[in-house]
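Example complex used in Figure S2.
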Amino acid sequence: MATPVAVSGIAEQDRVHASDRAFNPVASVTAEDLEFGAVYAQHVSFVWRVLRGMGVSNAQVADAAQDVFMVVHRRLPEFDARHPVKTWLFAIAYRVACKYRRTLRRAREHEPLDDSLRDNAPNPAEAAESRDAARLMAEWLEQLDDDKRAVFVLAEFEQLTAPEISAITGTRLSSVYTFLRRTRMQLSRAVAIREKRQR
Amino acid sequence: MSDLSPEASKFVDAARESFSPDEQAIVALRTALDARLGLAAASGSTRASAERSAFVSRGLSAGKFTKFVGTAIALVGIGVAAGWFGEHTRLQAPAPLPRALATPHAHTNATVAAAPEQPATPASSLPAPLGTPSLAGSHGRSQQHLRAARTARPAPKLATGRPLPLLAATNAAPHALPAVATTASDDPLVQELLVLRGARAALDRGDPARALELLDQQDVRYPNGVLRQERLATRVLALCALGHEHDAQMTARQLLQIAPRAPYLARMRASCAGEIIK
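Predicted assembly (477 residues):
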């Protein structure tokens, strides 16, 4: 049985369902967890980051996420709970991201500036650093092929393992390792060059 | 496999945080989805056939289904409520798991199966279950921040099927420093869900007083939380179980006000607050 997640304010007996189904969002997902509200609550951040990582601008990511969850809502009753929900969500988010990127390419000149440049972080210096990182990361990801990009996003943003990434993306395991090695080297080099310039 | 340099790793962490939605964005998105789904159904959406078959198979008559879809405003109702207020029906319909992205570029040129009003591409290959879906992406926020964010819940209204515009302020807030490694239990949404499940577990085992206690705690922590409708529905049943019919009916009225067509209301007709839900 999965170990219940410790949540403040919940007594031990309340963490376990009457039918002895402990809910642990880190463990395998039960059919009940694959209801819309649960999927939304657990995976909205994942979907959001995948959309951003796959090239949806900050200005459009909320709309794109709506599109993803509209599909999720429509298709969820048919989803087979035996399979990983993240695989399914990633595939939907991937396609939605492709659609938004195509639209963006067609109307690039009308694209508003990425509003990740907002300044509402508590520390202006931190905000500037974060904005810079987001912008540079978006630009750097833009140079990657879609398959490499997906592998990188899942590995570095979602901390998934290579076999998990292979299962989700359909990329061969050996290619996942290769992509990761190359992209990490490229990024490390790019960051080093950038830091050298800033000195 | 080579790792990122420490500088690059820090850079990735900062970008990752910036690429994540803040709590306000999550709540606003949910609100927009509620409204969009409700409007889509009210305008006689033609995309109901897949849902119809799926939900009919889950025990709803066609007539109820029409009402159900028309009232899809309470999404979590479909989620948590359908699983718990219903008969815990397993989702074992034919698997529509989308094809694995073996040839990602093909998707770029193909019709976008995931477009809002089009059916998603059915599965052509099913990857093996991963066993341990990670929530490593969950990131915590201070409760103070959460409360402030949750109180500013917008109510987008559009009469089209297009994405509802969210408030500009709901976009991801940049946070510079890398997020400290957090666990799933730090995610406020997961916490909200867990507490709700705890309340239901208490109710299931015949302890409605404990269920109410947990719901009270949750109301304080998440007054405008994503799962507010489900909390109200659970509260109605807990109050009924305690014999507090009047309070149950008052709560049912409150639920009707914020979600007049919530799909699980039909289930609640059999409760002591049934006469409120016509």
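The two ends of chain A are 54 Å apart (CA to CA). Confidence is low (pLDDT under 50) at residues 1-33, 111-122 of chain A.
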